[in-house]
What does this fold into?
Amino acid sequence: MKAFIHDSSRAESSGRPTIFPGAGRFRNVAKKLLYSEYLLLYLTLAYLLVATQLVPGLLSSTNLRNVLSNLFPLLVAAIGQSFVLITAGIDLSVTSVFACSSVVGGWIMTSNFGPRAGSGWSLAAGLLAMFVVAIVIALINGLSITQFEMPPFIVTLSTMTFFSGVALWLVQSRNIYHLPRLLVTIGKGSVVFVPYALLLTAALVSTAHWVLTRTVLGRWLFAAGYNAKAAVISGVPIGRTIIFAYVASAVCAALATVLLMGRLETASPIIGQRLLLDLIAAPVIGGVSLFGGRGKIQWVILGALFVTLMDNSLNLLGFSSFVIMMAKGGLILFAALLDVFRNASTVST
It folds into this structure.
């Protein structure tokens, strides 16, 4: 492409006519737009402009509340996934964290074992168990990758399959109902018209942004993904950094499960199962590089919003779940191809 643009400009300067006189300038503008970190913002605004014309009720208060209720759990889980992607890894086991933490936490909250069922103590015990389950799964992932040098894709795919099966076996594919009202309040309640889910999500977003931009740990995460060998030489504890990334991903997934359980008033071995594609799509569309070493939390927010808006608008237009999955798959492919081009451009410079 560079050679073609150079030849076109040389032809113009030499006085020879060109077929498309403005082709070189158009390609330069298109390239700058595609490589701009504001591309997702432009796409979101353009999509919103078109969608509001096709779906009149898209911006209604009722639908916006529905969009936000779907956005919060997705964004929370996507932030955790971003930590892993920044280290050039991937965490497919998030859905098994959803499943296992949900059924274990739900069982403790509703059973007569230990604290009285439905009480504040049973809620605290259940939440603690959910995060312990998540951290155990994360440690299996992290240690397998760092100590045995296994590929992250295979490790997390294996743990996803195994622990999702464990969750189904524990409850024999049944859901758990009658969760504590305090948990439902977390998922559905609000304080002064501000949902508790928004407060929790905002706190996580602020913490994640601070970790990535203001701490040594954040620099280690980027270094591990950008060039692991150089990072080791520089004294970065690669093993501990990667393990932390998977623990962060699992903890975020457990928090997303809390929001889902509170909103659905149910603990289920298949809760959040359809979110796997979305929580990978959100950071990738938001510019978190699949090659590691690059990503910003603020763009992950926009990526999650874009995915949620697209899902919501296509549902309102009456498209089937298959068509919606195809659209999301095409969007992820576009984002991945753009990431390849950006990475190649960075390497060449």
